[in-house]
Amino acid sequence: MPPVDHARWFGEEVKPHEPALRAYLQARFSSLSDHDDLVQETYVRMLRAKTAGKVRYARALLFSIAHNTALDLFRRHRAAPVEAVTDLVETEVLEKTPVVSDTVVQQEELEILADAVRGLSERCREVVLLRYLEGLSYKDIALRLGVSPETVKTHLATGMRRCAEHFAARGLLKPSSSKEASSA
After folding, report:
1. Do residue 135 and residue 166 come from a single domain?
2. Domain hosting residue 167, numbered range
3. DSSP string covering 110-171, please?
4. How far apart are CA 5 and CA 12, in angstroms?
5. Whole-angstrom Cα distance, residue 66 to residue 45?
6. What is d(CA 59, CA 156) in angstroms, rounded to the nearest whole number?
7. Which of the pair, 142 or 166, is modelled with greater confidence?
8. Residues 68, 132: one domain?
9. Is the pTM for the entire model greater than 0.70?
10. 118 and 55 part of one domain
11. What is the pLDDT of residue 142?
């Protein structure tokens, strides 16, 4: 994709989510000192993913990349040696809270996600929750549920597809191109 197309895609699909992304990072990773660097690194990784053709749902990937980037930063800080601070300067701590509208939008999106997950079949819902809430691997889920890893993959694919359809029906995602082609 030419740089002009990247810039247009970035401006339309990624940049509008920056306020929500910053609110998410502040709420979830408030102990990190510089969210600007985190946002910039997220954008770099997002553009790399776009260049590699790995972006299907920009907003979802944006938040996932930001989450992983923050975790990487925590890991780097944990691995770095701790230096004693000998000269403490008095600092004023300001309570930083996300903008109310961002919080409301995020809450609405979480409720739509919960509705989507509740709408899945029992086994499909169980697989999705084990994967994304508990972070279990396909193999671990298969062992826990007594099914094959392929069955786990099938349930995850079905769950993600149905959740994406649920989101698209509510205007949170654009319908997939294959769906658009079939409806034309």
Report:
1. yes
2. 100-178
3. HHHHHHHHHTS-HHHHHHHHHHHTS---HHHHHHHHTS-HHHHHHHHHHHHHHHHHHHHHTT
4. 10
5. 9
6. 19
7. 142
8. no
9. no
10. no
11. 95
